[in-house]
Design brief:
Elements: E1 2-4, H1 13-32, E2 43-49, E3 61-66, E4 72-79, H2 90-103, E5 115-120, H3 125-140, H4 144-152, H5 159-176, H6 182-189, E6 192-196, H7 205-209
Parallel strand pairs: 1-2, 4-5, 5-6
Antiparallel strand pairs: 2-3, 3-4
Helix pairs in contact: 2-5, 3-4, 3-5, 4-6
Length: 210
Amino acid sequence: MSSDVSNPFSTGGGGQLFEAKVQASFLLHLLIGGRVPCLPGGSVQSVRLQAKQAGFRTDDVVVRTLTETGTEHRLLAQVKHHAVVTASDEEFCDALGSAWLDFNNERAFAQGLDALALITGPLSDQALQHVRPLLEWARTSASGEEFFNKVATARFSSDKKRAYLQVFRDVLTKVAGATLIDDLVWRFLKHLYLLAYDFDVQDSKNEADV
């Protein structure tokens, strides 16, 4: 096992502390053999922090795991304490743009095996009710057509979910420099996770774990 550690990137004292605690939680998984979110069960082989020099754009935490059958998986995570899923939020757009670049880089990301994550503080009710289910629908859909039909279906879906899907599409279009076909948007979203850590709350479960 190996661990590549460097100082956490900081845009402010609070953000630095939050990022350091998130990174420490993944290092703990390495030490105790814990289960890494977003990936199939397996042993943690390495945790790399601030991995841009290794060719990753989603670089705050890169975790490599190995399943019992010998299949390697990686989680590429960006930590943005105050990110909000809107096209005007710079932290969200920056994280999504980095994830998109990694997603299209075969050296950094293996589609179908690896996962991308945006890690934030406690999520809003809107994110819990609409954004997370939207990403889960992408993962449980067999095709882009099925996914977009789910989102468009009245009563099954909602205007909020459709609005959030448009946010993802708008940001990805800006990053890619062209309008993306539905299938490509779906394939990206099925690899994307939105994770929340409650390190802001004293005596929280996440706080106790580190």
